[in-house]
Design a protein that fits this description.
Order of helices and strands: EEEHEEHHHHH
Strand content: 15-25%
Structural class: alpha+beta
Radius of gyration: 35 Å
CATH topology of the largest domain: SH3 type barrels
Shape: elongated
Number of domains: 2
Low-confidence stretches: none
Mean pLDDT: 79
Distance between the termini: 84 Å
């Protein structure tokens, strides 16, 4: 029942109740699914087979098909009408494509950043070891030990004075 092209309903997580299609069956009980995001707001991601419920609807797609291919297969198989999903407009599809492009570009730049970070720590220790000449020449001044003096001057709490409690008698209420 779990196969490439099977339309399913996500049952767990923030996308619970949304339709998705299986793109690939992975190892250890996982599948790769997509909505696609433009149509059902389900992102392409790895998902446990226990978190999806298959429907009787299937579409003809290749393994790891693009979202555009999945949308075309949805239209061809009539999935939008069968499942009551609103068909995305061209503007919504383009917006989803732009978001995906930005995400991929950000991922590429973040992969490049760790290499730059590795080079920087090598240069930093050299700067930390070097001290300005003024600091080298001037001896460090020691602060006087105030803690010992403060400990001797700690005041003992004053004895509690007995306080007289006075109670007022309740006056009768006037009508």
């Amino acid at each position: 029942m779990i196969e490439t092209g099977r339309v399913c309903v996500k049952t767990v997580g923030r996308e619970a109740g949304k339709f998705c299609v299986i793109l690939d069956v992975l190892k250890d009980g996982f599948v790769l699914v997509t909505g696609p995001k433009a149509a059902t707001t389900v992102k392409r991601r790895k998902c446990s087979i226990h978190h999806v419920e298959p429907t009787p609807v299937t579409v003809k797609i290749k393994k790891n098909a693009s979202d555009d291919d999945v949308l075309a297969a949805y239209k061809q198989a009539g999935v939008f009408k069968k499942l009551g999903i609103k068909e995305p407009t061209a503007k919504e599809i383009e917006k989803a494509r732009d978001a995906e492009r930005k995400r991929l570009a950000k991922a590429k730049t973040e992969k490049a950043k760790p290499e730059a970070k590795k080079k920087e720590p090598e240069a930093e220790p050299k700067k930390a070891e070097e001290k300005p000449e003024a600091e080298k020449a001037a001896p460090a001044k020691k602060e006087p030990a105030k803690k010992k003096q403060e400990a001797k001057t700690v005041k003992k709490p004053a004895a509690k004075k007995a306080v007289k409690k006075t109670t007022k008698k309740a006056e009768p209420k006037k009508k």
